Amino acid sequence: MYNLLLESGNAEDISWIEESLKNRNKYDKFVVRFGNLCNDLSKNYNNYNTFINSEELLKFKILAERDNEVTSLLNNLTYLHLRHRNYELALETFKQVDNRKDFQLTIFSILRHFEKEQKPDIIFNVLKNLKEQSNYRIHWSQILIYWRSVIKKYPHLGFELQKKFKKSLKRSKYHRFGFLSKMLLVNKQSSNGATLEIRYYPIVKYDNLEFDIKPLPAAPKLQNIESRLVAGILPNSELLRKSVKLTNDKSEFDRLVEIANQLQLRTSKYTAKVKNIKLNVEIFYKECSFGNKLSMKDFISEQLNIINDTKFVDDQDLCELFKVCVKSELYEESVSVLRLLDEYNVKIVGDQQILKFLSMFIKWCWINKDFKDLLTILEWLKNQTEFTTDKYFWSNLKNAASKNMSRIEREFCDISHLSLTEGQIIAMKEEKMYIEKVLPHVMSYYDHTLDNIKDKNLEKSDRIVDHSFRCFSQMIKWVDEDTETMFEGEW
């Protein structure tokens, strides 16, 4: 509780609990001192790295044994290692936990950690190792953590995964699992009716999940960031970005922008040493929501100038800038960002929504007969190895190409009835000759390339669905087996 209040940054609550602990002679206890230290270390990797290799950790281990607080030491160290993604040490400390109650809480925290990082395979491997090595009883709430993690990582496969998972549920022995199928429903919802008519994304029904699964903590607010600054802890750009996004108070927003500028996290070609386009985009949108009339075109030009000056950009930042350009229908600027995507060999990882904007851009290329940039984006898509999508995305692109090809052919079919000057007629005829020469080759290459990418993606998607199905079925089987040895009321 003390650690949670420290994290909240509320000075009044912190003062109250510290006074309460002192009155009960518990303020100097190991669990409070070590928990407070871990809370600070979790925010600074350099301090954490120094601590785990220092004699100070050995002293805390001796104190923990003396005060019979070994479990608390191991739990805090496990969370600390997870926070800094030191999975090897996290697993090492986790294996040493022997108290059954604390063991359950630690497992739950670990699974939620990997759910947040969208790593379903690690969630399954944790449960598998526990089952095989410790005869641990898998609970159905842990299965839902795995399922949610898969859905978040592969939203476009949600409907296929749901069908497979329901098959596993039907095979289970116990009728009490019937209610699980209701929680595992995936509602169809169009992601963008105007541009991706048959694309659907799942909605996980969180409203039924009332079995001790608490939501992930909200993004820090201004007061949290201020309290960290007082303690000498610098907030990173992602914390600032989320805070900017969530605030609806103009004075809070102005202070957050001031902090970003002071820390040089906000990108500016005049002052920035550390750049973050995602933070800039959030600030721009929030300024517009407060009534400031700003030019999106000027904003994007500024970001492109920064990238050109520094010759460096983060993959996620560049993807975010591309989405902003397409969303604002600034397709000429989109072309500039596309060339940077290709130049910096950006890989799409965990950002399925960018596919919607890629689709819009490809259709724009067809409408404007911009075949050069069309081929550029195809080449870039060919080199993508980390993302997967469903068959509808590719068929949607092929249908759009066919429609636009027919439109282009009709456009040049008869120009005699148009009231054009002689020069315009000559230009139209030259363009027609060029289109007739180039279009068949472009269409042939376009179809061939999309078919190849589609086959590779569908093969990968099938592997993901089958693997997830096997993992889910195995966990259901474990719960079935354990249920036979338990009372009805425990489940």
UniProtKB/TrEMBL annotation:
Name used for this protein in its record: Uncharacterized protein
Domain of life: Eukaryota
